[in-house]
Amino acid sequence: MEQFAWAAGFFDGEGCVQLYKRIRHDDWVDWQLMVTAVNTDIRPLVRMKALFGGSIQPMQKAGNKHGYLPSWAWMPSHAKAAKSLEMMLPWLTVKREQAELALQSRKYIQPHKRQRSQENRDALDLIRVQLSTLKKQPVGLAGLSVPPTGREN
């Protein structure tokens, strides 16, 4: 369990949760739950891969020639993405709501099938909008008790 707590902390800081929609020809809509973590230090990504599977890919940045460090991305497949979120969920803080929404999407995604049900499409579109909205909300200290610093004046 300790390794999943570590993974959740790393993912809270470096991870991303997305619901990717690809519209193909002839009414074919493909949905995929995407979970990634990007870092300039490959070691924590290797640890994520060892825990949850997936792959590690080099990131292509146009800015690399401008002095940016090379970076890598850990990317599990759709099924492994969901499983990794489930296993980290008890320890997630920053990404908890995003993970919960993403996990809800599984009941509407029909892998390798045409997403013909308008009800499923509408539900997935709503979840995708909710995920996007969560990422744009400022994180505040409302309701948190912050100890005084002694520099109030």
Could you explain how this protein is built, in words?
By secondary structure, the chain is an alpha+beta fold. 42% of the residues lie in helices and 18% in strands. The chain is built from five helices and four strands; from the N terminus they run αββαββααα. It has helices spanning 2-14, 42-52, 78-88, 96-105, 118-136; strands spanning 15-23, 29-39, 55-58, 72-75. β1 and β2 (29-39) form a beta hairpin.
How is the secondary structure organized here?
Layout: H1 2-14, E1 15-23, E2 29-39, H2 42-52, E3 55-58, E4 72-75, H3 78-88, H4 96-105, H5 118-136
Antiparallel strand pairs: 1-2, 2-4, 3-4
Helix pairs in contact: 1-2, 4-5
Low-confidence runs of at least 5 consecutive residues: none
Note the main sheet: 4 strands, antiparallel
Strand order, biggest sheet? 1-2-4-3
Global geometry: globular
Which series of helices and strands comes N to C? HEEHEEHHH
Helicity level: 40-55%
Rg (C-alpha, Å): 18 Å
Distance between the termini: 45 Å
